[in-house]
Specification:
mainly beta, 4-stranded antiparallel beta sheet, 13 strands, globular
Length: 196
Protein backbone atom coordinates (compact mmCIF):
# COMPACT_ATOMS: atom_id res chain seq x y z
CA UNK A 1 0.00 0.00 0.00
CA UNK A 2 1.13 3.51 -0.80
CA UNK A 3 -0.15 7.03 -0.08
CA UNK A 4 1.83 9.65 -2.03
CA UNK A 5 1.55 13.44 -1.83
CA UNK A 6 3.42 15.95 -3.99
CA UNK A 7 5.07 18.53 -1.71
CA UNK A 8 6.95 20.54 -4.35
CA UNK A 9 6.53 20.65 -8.11
CA UNK A 10 8.74 21.83 -10.98
CA UNK A 11 7.48 24.68 -13.24
CA UNK A 12 6.16 22.03 -15.70
CA UNK A 13 4.10 20.57 -12.78
CA UNK A 14 6.10 17.36 -12.56
CA UNK A 15 6.90 16.24 -9.01
CA UNK A 16 10.11 17.59 -7.52
CA UNK A 17 9.60 16.33 -3.94
CA UNK A 18 7.05 13.79 -2.71
CA UNK A 19 6.01 12.46 0.67
CA UNK A 20 5.36 8.74 0.48
CA UNK A 21 3.62 6.78 3.23
CA UNK A 22 3.78 3.02 3.02
CA UNK A 23 3.93 -0.05 5.20
CA UNK A 24 7.40 -1.53 5.45
CA UNK A 25 7.58 -5.32 5.83
CA UNK A 26 9.15 -6.52 9.09
CA UNK A 27 12.86 -7.32 9.12
CA UNK A 28 13.55 -10.75 7.72
CA UNK A 29 10.35 -10.86 5.64
CA UNK A 30 10.68 -12.52 2.24
CA UNK A 31 9.04 -9.60 0.45
CA UNK A 32 10.80 -6.33 -0.26
CA UNK A 33 9.73 -2.88 -1.35
CA UNK A 34 9.55 -1.84 -4.98
CA UNK A 35 8.59 1.66 -6.06
CA UNK A 36 6.96 1.84 -9.46
CA UNK A 37 6.00 5.08 -11.15
CA UNK A 38 4.42 6.27 -14.37
CA UNK A 39 0.96 6.71 -15.87
CA UNK A 40 0.55 2.98 -16.50
CA UNK A 41 1.05 2.04 -12.82
CA UNK A 42 -2.19 1.37 -10.93
CA UNK A 43 -2.18 1.56 -7.16
CA UNK A 44 -3.71 -1.40 -5.30
CA UNK A 45 -6.51 -0.54 -2.87
CA UNK A 46 -5.70 -0.38 0.84
CA UNK A 47 -7.68 -2.76 3.00
CA UNK A 48 -8.38 -1.85 6.60
CA UNK A 49 -7.34 1.78 6.18
CA UNK A 50 -8.33 5.03 7.88
CA UNK A 51 -11.79 6.41 7.06
CA UNK A 52 -13.53 9.70 7.83
CA UNK A 53 -17.30 10.14 8.12
CA UNK A 54 -18.58 13.73 8.30
CA UNK A 55 -22.22 14.65 8.82
CA UNK A 56 -21.50 18.40 9.08
CA UNK A 57 -21.85 18.36 12.88
CA UNK A 58 -19.60 15.48 13.92
CA UNK A 59 -16.56 13.81 12.40
CA UNK A 60 -15.91 10.13 12.99
CA UNK A 61 -12.36 8.99 12.21
CA UNK A 62 -11.86 5.23 12.18
CA UNK A 63 -8.56 3.36 11.96
CA UNK A 64 -8.33 -0.44 12.25
CA UNK A 65 -8.08 -0.44 16.08
CA UNK A 66 -9.11 3.11 17.08
CA UNK A 67 -12.16 5.29 16.50
CA UNK A 68 -12.53 8.95 17.57
CA UNK A 69 -15.52 11.25 17.43
CA UNK A 70 -15.10 15.02 17.05
CA UNK A 71 -18.06 17.31 17.77
CA UNK A 72 -17.83 20.72 16.06
CA UNK A 73 -20.09 22.27 18.71
CA UNK A 74 -18.59 20.72 21.85
CA UNK A 75 -14.80 20.49 21.92
CA UNK A 76 -11.46 21.38 20.37
CA UNK A 77 -10.38 17.80 21.06
CA UNK A 78 -12.19 14.52 20.59
CA UNK A 79 -15.44 13.87 22.43
CA UNK A 80 -15.34 10.05 22.39
CA UNK A 81 -12.62 7.44 21.93
CA UNK A 82 -12.98 3.73 21.25
CA UNK A 83 -10.21 1.13 21.05
CA UNK A 84 -10.51 -2.51 20.07
CA UNK A 85 -7.76 -4.70 18.55
CA UNK A 86 -10.45 -6.50 16.51
CA UNK A 87 -11.96 -3.24 15.21
CA UNK A 88 -15.39 -3.99 16.73
CA UNK A 89 -16.42 -0.58 18.13
CA UNK A 90 -19.39 -0.37 20.44
CA UNK A 91 -20.35 0.59 24.01
CA UNK A 92 -18.05 -2.09 25.46
CA UNK A 93 -14.97 -0.60 23.71
CA UNK A 94 -15.64 3.05 24.58
CA UNK A 95 -12.69 4.28 26.65
CA UNK A 96 -13.77 7.83 27.44
CA UNK A 97 -16.54 9.08 29.69
CA UNK A 98 -19.31 10.23 27.29
CA UNK A 99 -20.30 13.08 29.60
CA UNK A 100 -16.79 14.50 29.98
CA UNK A 101 -14.83 15.07 26.73
CA UNK A 102 -11.05 15.30 26.67
CA UNK A 103 -9.74 18.84 27.13
CA UNK A 104 -6.61 20.91 27.55
CA UNK A 105 -6.77 23.31 30.50
CA UNK A 106 -4.65 26.47 30.88
CA UNK A 107 -4.57 28.04 34.34
CA UNK A 108 -3.53 31.69 34.54
CA UNK A 109 -1.53 33.30 37.36
CA UNK A 110 -4.73 34.13 39.26
CA UNK A 111 -5.90 30.49 39.17
CA UNK A 112 -8.59 31.00 36.50
CA UNK A 113 -8.96 27.93 34.23
CA UNK A 114 -9.56 28.14 30.48
CA UNK A 115 -10.11 25.01 28.38
CA UNK A 116 -10.68 23.68 24.87
CA UNK A 117 -14.34 22.81 25.48
CA UNK A 118 -16.87 24.68 23.39
CA UNK A 119 -17.11 25.06 19.64
CA UNK A 120 -13.69 25.31 17.97
CA UNK A 121 -13.13 27.96 15.31
CA UNK A 122 -11.96 25.37 12.80
CA UNK A 123 -12.22 21.62 12.30
CA UNK A 124 -10.60 20.50 9.07
CA UNK A 125 -9.40 17.27 7.53
CA UNK A 126 -5.98 18.42 6.31
CA UNK A 127 -5.10 15.12 4.71
CA UNK A 128 -7.39 12.17 4.10
CA UNK A 129 -5.89 8.91 3.01
CA UNK A 130 -6.25 5.25 3.76
CA UNK A 131 -2.75 5.03 5.29
CA UNK A 132 -2.66 8.39 7.06
CA UNK A 133 -5.28 10.99 7.92
CA UNK A 134 -4.56 14.33 9.62
CA UNK A 135 -7.22 16.36 11.41
CA UNK A 136 -6.71 20.03 12.41
CA UNK A 137 -8.66 21.74 15.22
CA UNK A 138 -8.17 25.43 16.08
CA UNK A 139 -9.79 27.76 18.57
CA UNK A 140 -9.35 29.64 21.84
CA UNK A 141 -9.07 28.33 25.39
CA UNK A 142 -12.14 29.76 27.12
CA UNK A 143 -14.24 29.82 30.25
CA UNK A 144 -17.71 31.25 30.91
CA UNK A 145 -16.36 34.82 30.96
CA UNK A 146 -13.71 35.03 28.25
CA UNK A 147 -10.79 33.60 26.31
CA UNK A 148 -7.06 33.18 26.84
CA UNK A 149 -4.64 32.07 24.11
CA UNK A 150 -5.29 30.23 20.88
CA UNK A 151 -4.79 26.51 20.42
CA UNK A 152 -3.93 24.40 17.40
CA UNK A 153 -4.32 20.63 17.62
CA UNK A 154 -3.32 18.15 14.95
CA UNK A 155 -4.33 14.52 15.29
CA UNK A 156 -2.63 12.03 12.98
CA UNK A 157 -4.12 8.60 12.40
CA UNK A 158 -2.11 5.78 10.81
CA UNK A 159 -3.71 2.62 9.46
CA UNK A 160 -1.05 0.29 10.81
CA UNK A 161 -0.32 1.94 14.17
CA UNK A 162 -2.52 1.32 17.22
CA UNK A 163 -2.11 4.92 18.40
CA UNK A 164 -2.97 8.48 17.42
CA UNK A 165 -0.34 11.23 17.34
CA UNK A 166 -1.51 14.43 19.04
CA UNK A 167 0.31 17.71 18.45
CA UNK A 168 -0.83 20.64 20.61
CA UNK A 169 0.33 24.27 20.37
CA UNK A 170 -0.92 27.35 22.11
CA UNK A 171 -0.38 30.91 20.92
CA UNK A 172 -0.35 34.14 22.89
CA UNK A 173 -2.88 36.51 21.36
CA UNK A 174 -3.48 38.16 24.74
CA UNK A 175 -3.76 41.92 24.23
CA UNK A 176 -2.94 42.93 27.80
CA UNK A 177 0.61 43.02 29.15
CA UNK A 178 3.51 42.02 26.93
CA UNK A 179 3.89 38.79 28.93
CA UNK A 180 1.16 36.57 30.32
CA UNK A 181 1.94 34.27 33.22
CA UNK A 182 0.50 30.78 33.41
CA UNK A 183 0.26 28.68 36.55
CA UNK A 184 -0.19 25.43 34.64
CA UNK A 185 -1.29 23.50 31.58
CA UNK A 186 -2.72 19.99 31.57
CA UNK A 187 -4.44 17.43 29.36
CA UNK A 188 -7.51 15.83 30.92
CA UNK A 189 -8.69 12.52 29.51
CA UNK A 190 -11.61 11.22 31.64
CA UNK A 191 -11.83 7.47 31.16
CA UNK A 192 -14.93 5.30 31.47
CA UNK A 193 -13.57 2.52 33.68
CA UNK A 194 -15.61 0.45 36.08
CA UNK A 195 -18.98 1.41 37.47
CA UNK A 196 -17.91 4.52 39.36
Amino acid sequence: PLQPRALVRWPDHSVKLALIDTVVPPAGAAEGLTLEYGHQVKRAPVSGGVTVADDGHKLLVTAPTIRMEFDRKASGLFTRLWRDPAGQFGPQTLLTDPGRPARVVLTDAAGRAYDTLGAPDKVEVEEAGALRTVLLLEGHHSDDNGELFTYRVRMTFHAHTPAVLLSYRFGNDYSGDEFALLRGIRLELPLAVGDD
